[in-house]
Amino acid sequence: MHVLSDILLEDHLKCSSKSYLHLQGRSGRATDYSVLCSQLDASYRAGVAHWLAAQSTGRVSRFGGSRLQSLTSSDAIILDAVGEADGLETHFDGLQRISSGSRLGTYQYRPIRFCRQMQPNSAIYLLLAFDALVLRHLQGVSPEHGVLLCGPTFRRITVRLRKHAHSLAAVLTRLRLQIASANEPPLVLNRHCEMCEFKQLCRDKAVEADNLTLLRGMTLKEMARHNSKGIFSVKQLSYTFRPRRPALQAALG
Ligand code: SF4
Fold first, then answer.
1. Are 226 and 210 in contact (CB under 8 A)?
2. Could you tell me whether strands 155-160 and 145-150 are parallel, antiparallel, or unpaired per DSSP bridges?
3. CA 229 – CA 47 distance, rounded (Å)
4. Atom of ligand 1 nearest to the CA of 21
5. If you measure from the C-alpha of residue 190 to the centroid of ligand 1, how many angstroms do you get, rounded to a whole number?
6. Among residues 33, 100, 136, 141, which is most buried (max CB within 10 A)?
7. Residue 167's pLDDT band (boundaries 50, 70, 90)?
8. Mutual orientation of helices 162-180 and 16-23 as an angle, nearest 10°?
9. How much is the pTM?
10. How far apart are CA 169 and CA 167, in angstroms?
């Protein structure tokens, strides 16, 4: 069984072609921009983890990216640990112990995610909800809230996780379908392409097929609408344009 990880989920949220290519075992060349972002992210994570540990009055344990075997040690804060349960795997930036019953006893954990940007995007909320889903399997109850620490001031946002459960379930269903199928999703160039490791591969593919996605601003919905009329390439679409009639042109000046 393929483990469904937060990394794969994040890929899928950015672009279904990206998760498809990774599922096919493909890898590309990291762009300079993505390398820079990874370095900034790593440095941000270290800073916020340090700050979080300093805030805690209880015991803090750091896992350094290794696997969490259990949650029974009841540390007040757990940092940088990987949790796995029921075919799901996630990297917890942090876990915070709170007083509330669970399979662990009189306490449970809630997830914390770090976000370098001041304004988290919708993907971060779904990733936090995914952390909570893994936690539910590990502690027997779903935490009601999660926490985002954002931007240079570590702005704290408390997130009501139930609000995102429905969207997460829908995305996970789509992702599971993709895992189970060998079908390649339609190629849609998007904002993430500029920093994506598959930038050149997808660009070449789109140019070779004269794919409609080469047109700036072309959405999946619009492409589907054109495809339903038998239009699949930029050239085919260009045949549908008619020059303006002279009278109309004159009227328009
Ligand atoms: S280059 Fe663009 S279309 Fe290709 S996988 Fe990356 S984000 Fe998706």
1. no
2. antiparallel
3. 53
4. 5
5. 7
6. 136
7. very high
8. 50
9. 0.90
10. 5
Domain map (residue ranges) of the chain: 4-180, 191-252
Going by C-alpha positions, the residue among 102, 123, 100, 103 that lies closest to residue 113 is 123
CA dist., res. 250 & res. 246, Å (int): 6
User: In the CATH scheme, what is the code of domain 4-180?
Assistant: 3.90.320
Tell the residue nearest (CA) to atom 4 of ligand 1: 202
Q: For 77-116, how does the pLDDT look when each residue is reduced to its tens digit (9 = 90+)?
A: 999 999 999 999 999 999 999 999 999 999 999 999 999 9
Output the pLDDT for position 232: 86
Instruction: Report pLDDT digits (tens) over 20-52.
Output: 999 999 999 999 999 999 999 999 999 999 999
Residue 150: φ, ψ to 5°: -125, 145
pLDDT value at residue 2: 82
Check if the beta carbon of residue 91 is closer than 8 Å to that of residue 122.
no
Q: Residue type at 98?
A: I
